Structures are given as C-alpha cells and as structure tokens.
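Hey, can you fold this one?
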Amino acid sequence: MEPIEIKDKIHNTIEGLPAKKLRIALDFLEDLQRSDQAETQALLNEAGFIEDYRQAKKDIRTGQTISWEAIKRDV
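Sure. Predicted structure:
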C-alpha cells in the first residue's frame, strides 16, 4: 500500500470516530512520532554511530557481509 493510500485510509477511518476516540488516536500518533524522533536522536548521539553506519553501508555494497545461516548456527 502506498503512503497516500495509507493516509487516505487513516483519514476515512477517523472521520467516523467520536471525539473521545479521536483524542486517543491523536495521542497514539503523537507517541509514535516522538518515539521515532527520540530513538533516532539516541542513535545519532551514540559515539561512533555515523562512522559505523557508513562502514556498514559500504560493506553491504561490496558484499562484505555474513549470511544469516552462518549467524544462526552460532546461536
């Protein structure tokens, strides 16, 4: 489902909600927004995260990865 379809479906769904449930829905959406921002900021504040992230992207592009099967066997 495309983002515009999701937004339309959300809009259509909230149209029929009573005020009390609208407030709950809004609180939930605001919590989702805050948690994403807080989690992202926590990662960005972590020492060395950006460098590790860039290296990981490079490793993926160059195929320097470990297969899931190899990891699963060690667990």
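Residues 19-45 form the longest helix (27 residues). Let me know if you want another pass with a different chain boundary.
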